[in-house]
Structure to design on (350 residues):
């Protein structure tokens, strides 16, 4: 009898471990938190005596388990996401994290340049090599280059201007060997790679390294700006970064004394781009006592709506969730940073 009880106990423990810990081939997202940007964004000599706050919002994404998968079917505060909605095909944990950090870095770059432009302070942008975004399976670079590498030179020629990398590679043919100098984890590495056809249906037999890349830029400002985001990734804090940087660059308090949060990618021209998880960010913002929430009012053409029945703009998602949870928080639609600034300009001081 005692052995039987021990056996049942062991089976129960194993079942619970399976239920709560076994990773499924999917992800679960949940509301995250609100982070006051004043200690995260640091403008050298900036104005820090503002009464209100600008906050960035996050969502929590992790591997689904049997328990969270079932629980999500009965909760409007959990959502199951297929892997294809989170990761690219063949992307591992390291590559995913690097991509998220890169998206965050790019959002900060745009936030700083837009903020400085709005207050009339020039910035200095210089070319900073080629960032490897993706390495195609079975391409020439597969097993040689890694996501996150920064290409600095081709056959000893330093990359110093936009378009130079593509121009140098285009002079090569199939089976040509090229020496690639890359910066990897703060060290310079030289790799010899034999070029081959790019393994992509859109490449049409072109010869190359078989990578997706982005020409990088380095930004210098006066005053200096540092943004400390730790483990937060993705581009969705761009709008709020822009507003916080402007708030520290200016003497006036843009917040007018309110606790303000929001979401949206900041594009180079000041447009606020669509992001994921706007509904869950509304839940988190309400929980943290946010009074005003900026949501991207992204343009969804009729053909997009027809092809994706039920699709909503971020603003529509945010309003729907706000109504459902009964929050008193004001949801404000924005298409550009100027929309947010205009709203704040007309906002009476608290």
């Amino acid at each position: 009898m005692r052995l039987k009880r021990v056996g049942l106990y062991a089976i129960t423990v194993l079942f619970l471990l399976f239920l709560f810990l076994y990773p499924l081939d999917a992800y679960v997202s949940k509301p995250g938190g609100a982070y006051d940007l004043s200690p995260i964004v640091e403008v050298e000599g900036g104005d820090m005596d503002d009464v209100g706050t600008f906050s960035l919002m996050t969502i929590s994404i992790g591997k689904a388990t049997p328990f969270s998968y079932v629980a999500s079917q009965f909760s409007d505060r959990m959502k199951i996401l297929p892997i294809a909605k989170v990761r690219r095909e063949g992307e591992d944990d390291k590559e995913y994290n690097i991509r998220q950090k890169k998206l965050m870095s790019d959002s900060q770059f745009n936030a700083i340049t837009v903020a400085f432009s709005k207050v009339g302070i020039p910035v200095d942008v210089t070319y900073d090599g080629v960032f490897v975004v993706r390495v195609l399976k079975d391409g020439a670079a597969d097993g040689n280059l890694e996501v996150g590498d920064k290409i600095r030179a081709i056959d000893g020629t330093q990359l110093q201007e936009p378009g130079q990398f593509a121009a140098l590679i285009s002079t090569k043919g199939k089976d040509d060997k090229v020496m690639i100098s890359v910066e990897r984890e703060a060290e310079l590495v030289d790799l010899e790679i034999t070029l081959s056809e790019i393994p992509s249906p859109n490449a049409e037999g072109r010869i190359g390294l078989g990578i997706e890349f982005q020409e990088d830029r380095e930004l210098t400002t006066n005053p200096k700006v540092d943004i400390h985001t730790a483990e937060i990734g993705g581009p969705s804090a761009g709008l709020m970064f822009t507003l916080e940087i402007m708030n520290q660059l200016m003497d006036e308090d843009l917040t007018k004394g309110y606790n303000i949060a929001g979401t949206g990618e900041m594009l180079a021209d000041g447009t606020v781009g669509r992001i994921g998880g706007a509904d869950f960010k509304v839940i988190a913002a309400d929980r943290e006592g946010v009074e005003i929430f900026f949501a991207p009012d992204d343009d969804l053409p009729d053909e997009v709506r027809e092809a994706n029945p039920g699709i909503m703009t971020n603003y529509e998602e945010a309003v729907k969730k706000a109504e459902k949870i009964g929050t008193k928080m004001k949801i404000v639609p924005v298409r550009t940073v100027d929309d947010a600034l205009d709203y704040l300009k007309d906002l009476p001081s608290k």
